Structures are given as structure tokens and as C-alpha cells.
Amino acid sequence: MPIEINVTTRKAQGTGASRRLRNSGRVPGIVYGSGDVVMIELDHNDLYHKLRSEAFHASVLTLNLEGNKESVLLRDFVMHPFRQQVQHIDFQRVDAKKKMHIKVPLHFLNAEIAPGVKTGGGKISHVINELDIICLPKDLPAFIEVDLGKLELGHSVHVADLKLPKGVETAAHGTHTAEAVVATVQVPRGAVEAEAAVEAAPAPAAAPAGKAAAPAAKETKK
User: Fold this and answer.
1) Cβ neighbours of residue 147 under 8 Å, at least 6 residues apart?
2) Which whole-number Å values give the CA distances from 38 to 13, 173, 198, in the listed order?
3) 22, 132, 140, 208: which could form a disulfide with 171 (CB 3.0–4.6 Å)?
4) SS3 for 104-170, per residue?
5) Which of 43-57, 63-77, 198-212 bottoms out in mean pLDDT, i.e. has the lowest?
């Protein structure tokens, strides 16, 4: 079921108006895309809790503007530098017939049974936690699974190895090319350093053959 956000039109604009809005427990925002840009405001507490949901960041949302509903994506939000307060939020309208570019989270599965972990003593490292994809709104997945169950020690899972849902393709650019590493399993750095230290330590000197160790010197009485 789509996540719905209730918003109202924001009439007052400017820095002072936005400050007063925040002080009253509301958040200023905008809706843009196909059609006019609309200034909005919404309840801070409700928005703050929604932002803590993974699905809110990677789903087509239903924006209810005073009874008029439309599909949107969360595009950006600004938090206060040190308070748990949302300062501003941006939504973009969604066209059902046009492909969109969005980031979706990756869910890592079967790490505990990966040979590199279970028998090799390695540790999984997540290099990428979300993936840039392109798809129609109807094909947008809530997340993409990454199966680590066959990952050997020293091996990696790449973007090209991922099984994408029907209608979904990767936005191959920047660090998210087909060859980009998603996750890898390696021996923990501390274990490697400890092993290297043991190997580098000098061996204890052996006593010459046929000779006993010299007796400890006795203290001379005066």
C-alpha cells in the first residue's frame, strides 16, 4: 500500500516565514516536476517518523494536497546541523509513462553461510549499500537482494552479478558500473596483522650443541 503524506499549501514565503513555520511544528517544502511548482508545508513529527522508514526513501509516495492526490518521489531533505529537526523537504512528481532514476537499498542475504565466512574466517565488507536504477514507476522495487551465500574468501560480488527485477536496469555511471564491487569477503585486518607480526618475530637463539647454559652468577659477599 503506497505511503501517503498529507500536506497543505504554504502561503507565506521567505526566511522569516519558514522559521516561524518550523517553530510551530511544521516543515516547509516544495513539489516540482510536471506542472507548476507548489510550495507546501506538513507536520514535522509525522514526517520525521516517515523519514526513518527505508521505504519512504525508495517508493512512489502518494502526496495528498488538500484532497488532491498525486504520485511523487522524495528527492531531498535538509536536517538541522545538530537538532533532530527537518528543515526542508523536496518532492518530485512522477509520470507513470516515463522512466525514473532513483536509488534503492540493497539487502544482503546469507552472509553467515558464505564459505569465506563460515570456513575461511573472513568478514563481509559492504562496499555499496544502495544502487542507482532506472525503471518505470510501476516496476520500482522496494529493495534489491544481494545473495552472499556462495562467496569465497577473497572474492567479491559485482553489480553485474545482481539479479534485477523485471523492468529494472542499473544506471551505469560513476562508481556503479557493471564491474563495481558491491560486497567482498576478506580476512579481518587485525588477524592479518597479528599473523604478520608472528612471522616477523625473531626465533629464540638455541644453546650451542654439547654445552650447558652458563650458571647464573652468584652475588659476591662483602
Assistant:
1) 109, 110, 163
2) 12, 31, 66
3) 132
4) EEEEEECHHHCHHHHCCCCEEEECCCEEEEEECHHHCCCCEEEECCCCCCCCEEEHHHCCCCCCCEE
5) 198-212
Contact of 51 with 25, CB cutoff 8 Å: no
61-65 and 68-79 as β-strands: parallel, antiparallel, unpaired?
antiparallel
- How many C-beta atoms surround the C-beta of residue 9 within 10 A? 10
Which percentage of the chain shows pLDDT scores above 90?
Answer: 73
pLDDT tens digits, 127-178: 999 999 999 999 999 999 999 999 999 999 999 999 999 999 998 765 668 8
User: Does the pLDDT of residue 12 top 50, yes or no?
Assistant: yes
Q: Copy the grid coordinates of residue 115.
A: 564459505
Determine how many CB atoms are found less than 10 A away from the CB of residue 94. Answer: 21
Residue count (the chain): 222
